[in-house]
Amino acid sequence: MCWNTRTFSAAAGEGAFCNGQRIHVSHTDKVEQSLLVTGFGYEHDDAWATNIELFKEFTDVSRGVRRLGAAAVDMCHVALGIVEAFWEYRLKPWDMAAGVLIVEEAGGAVSCMDGGKFCVFDRSVLVSNGILHDKLLERIGPATENLKKNGTDFSLWFKPENYSTDF
To answer: How far apart are CA 66 and CA 105, in angstroms?
Structure first.
């Protein structure tokens, strides 16, 4: 059995790469033809239960939903074009920073799970090939809004004063 190691890299404005080769997100334009990935946190709270429901919903309408276990790697799979989207609640900045940049540089889209503009200090993330982003938000957005209405905290993780996240 052969085990291949992939090394992903990106720099703002310079593209995304896997083992030195430029990569790009998929061109899949139908949820029904997409393979999706999500993750579940350790706390079995309302956000966890909501994500279980999203997992079920998307399993019924897509080629499948996988749970692989490492957010940055999951995002790299979106960038590589082997899956179309990844979403998760309750990630920390260090879980998301590199993967988000790699997806953006590979031509994908990134937002919060309510559709808002993403900041690395946010508590949710949706990354996609861009083509499917709005279609995914049709289900993910309302579920996230319901969590907010019911008191789930979506405030920023600690953000140092005067720390710019817009580049």
So the answer is: 23
Q: What is the pLDDT of residues 9-63, one digit of tens each?
A: 999 999 999 999 999 999 999 999 999 999 998 888 999 999 999 999 999 999 9
Q: How far is CA 164 from CA 102, 119, 120, 161, in A?
A: 19, 10, 10, 9
Which regions of the chain does DSSP assign to beta strands (E)?
8-11, 15-18, 21-22, 35-38, 64-67, 85-89, 109-111, 124-128
Angle at 66 between CA 7 and CA 30, to 5 degrees: 95
**CB-based contacts of 18: which residues, under 8 Å, 6+ apart?**
6, 7, 8, 76, 79, 80
Which of 110, 99, 87 lies closest to 40, judged by CA? Answer: 87
This prediction's pTM: 0.91
**Predicted confidence (pLDDT) per residue in 119-144, tens digit:** 999 999 999 999 999 999 999 999 99
Of 58, 54, 65, 61, the closest CA to residue 89 belongs to 54
